[in-house]
Target: FAD/FMN-containing dehydrogenase
Amino acid sequence: MLDQQLLQALEQVVGEAGLVRDEQRLQSYLSDWRNAYRGKAALVVRPASTEQVAAVVRLCREAGVALVPQGGNTGLCGGSIPDDSGTQVVLSLTRMTQIRDVDAGNETITVEAGVLLQRLQEAAAEAGRLFPLSLGAEGSCTVGGNLATNAGGTAVLRYGNMRDLALGLEVVLPDGRIWNGLRGLRKDNTGYDLKHLFIGSEGTLGIITAAVLKLYPAIRSRTTAWVALPSSQAAVDLIGRMRALCGDRLTGFELMSRQSVEFVLRHVAGCGELFAEPHPWYVLIELSDTLPDSPLAEMLESGLGAAFEEGEALDAVVAGSEAQVAALWKLREGISEAQNHEGPSLKHDISVPVSRIPAFIAQADERLQQAFPGVRIVCYGHVGDGNLHYNISKPLGSEDAPFKAQAEAIMHLIYDVTAAFAGSISAEHGIGQAKREAASRYKDPLELELMRSLKQTLDPTGLMNPGKVL
Model:
């Protein structure tokens, strides 16, 4: 329970509409969407402006109460869930939904942290522009959360992740001061680029309340294909071929194992086999251009023709309509949902150099099957940036409990192989609470020391999202 004086002070700042105290309403703030992480909170506070966020932070700091910033709560690592002490305050940014400015001449948009990613995409489209970040959760995730976790998605190959898409930030610091870094500049060489401290920090160094983000010309032509491959090496060869041929018109290149696709075919309505026989691997290729009459189909045909000749491709389907494009993407985007129907899913969001993807998969697969016979490996991801979602489902016919008991051993095996290939244990999902201990094991000690020094400097009382990242 919060001190009554603090509770009254918070209510004065945000009003009754800005407090969530009802037990039933509280529940959606206290667990993640997968129900993998659950905590308790003394209160949920929903400020409606940056000034209100700053006032809430000051009040909680003076009272020694920890804050857990939260956006759309769609994360996979428990970064926005409070602990089970019941003493922390969840600070939800979901009332901060203003699109403050669209500057078409500067190709920028300024939005508050609670704006849904889908709404941001729509606002860009209304201005005849594109905001390229695209995620499966775009209808419910928020800009603040995207920035706090440095979200990636399916178009990183061409546009980069949120770190690449952000020009300026507004941040409430742990002492309640407001840093106004909302500058829409592509060149600003006046010292340290402070925004990068907060992007990817998961609310442990401050609370992002608004951002200036890059816009791009609208896409006016698109070609999408689903291609069957004999191996993961063929995917690396094919992306090299398509990059050389298409340049930055290559917008998406998604890799999926046969096991991934089988789960989707089994559990996602409206998805069916595209070829007469199954194949070991598949890629979803998307080319796009700002020109309405761009020769994308010819480029795709040329690239795939050469791939067939070299044995890199076995079969292909090219979408002939928007409905077919959506159907191909549904096969890719349904994987995470489909795997949940197969029992517990041990998710590992790793990255390795693109050239080493095939060797990583071969070694990790072999070691897993030797140590944990029968586990089903659901491997898919973004080949262009080396990011694989290397997820594990239990063996057919086995019980959940013994499989869950092996989760840590499976994780360490996968991360050991990742480290051996000079990779990262978190490519786009963040650290949160799920990977905090693993980060201390696999991250360079000097890097951790520098991170702790930054945390101590900005948040000496340790009240900003404690127990996350570090």
